[in-house]
Amino acid sequence: MTLSYDIHGDGPTVVLLHSSVCDRRMWDRQVPVLTEAGYRVVRCDFRGFGETPVADRPYSDAGDVRDLLDHLKCERYALIGSSHGGEVALEVAATRPEAAVSLVLLCAAMPGHVAGPELREFTERKKEFLAADDIAGAVELNLATWMGPDAQEDAHHLVRVMQQHALETQRAARFTSTAAPVDIGRITAPCLAVSGAHDLADFREIARTLPRRIAGARHLELPWAGHFPSLERPDEVNGLLTDFLSTTFPAR
């Protein structure tokens, strides 16, 4: 078992998977609400994020998460993923459909997705900043791209801190996560795919198409949200999460 993690509360297990801009601290506003609702909340840092060091060998984020869940002896669980964390959640749910019994995707990426023009442009601009060793510029590009209009200054500050730490840590990385091809049609869990009206087109399209790919999935677009709704309006998203879990994976 490799990943740094923490556990809060008792009850059915809910696993929180962070974006590739953030680390597990992005869920600080969700953890107390979910524990109060009766769940055992597990959150982790992927390799090169938060308290988990970079990899010294080839790996996959989904494989690391599966190893962590095995280590914790989690047999049934809900997965909540943001952006890249949503992609990881899809991989885990597709490879362990009997264990992943509820799935919430917040502006998720998707295995095998081919980037559109907006996402390609962002990626190229970020590469330019990093090639120039301008981490501060890359951080501000991330904030300008991903944070919706309702995000408060405390959310901006937290994302800035998390992304700067990740970029500085990953300077030493020799390996990046590799995703194996998966058939997300194997997912049997009820799935809520959330998109933000102010997000890039890639992520809005992924969320819209998931109900055609996963039986029983439904799509909800938040008109106020950018890429990180759980940081932008945490109270509203907490209500969405607890309502969905109460019907798909009840705590009591």
TrEMBL record:
It comes from the Bacteria. It holds the Pfam family Abhydrolase_6. The keyword Hydrolase applies. Keywords: Hydrolase. InterPro entries: AB_hydrolase_1, AB_hydrolase_fold, AB_hydrolase_sf. Residues 14-238 form the AB hydrolase-1 domain. GO terms for molecular function: hydrolase activity. This is Alpha/beta hydrolase. It comes from Streptomyces spinosisporus. The lineage of its organism: Bacteria, Bacillati, Actinomycetota, Actinomycetes, Kitasatosporales.
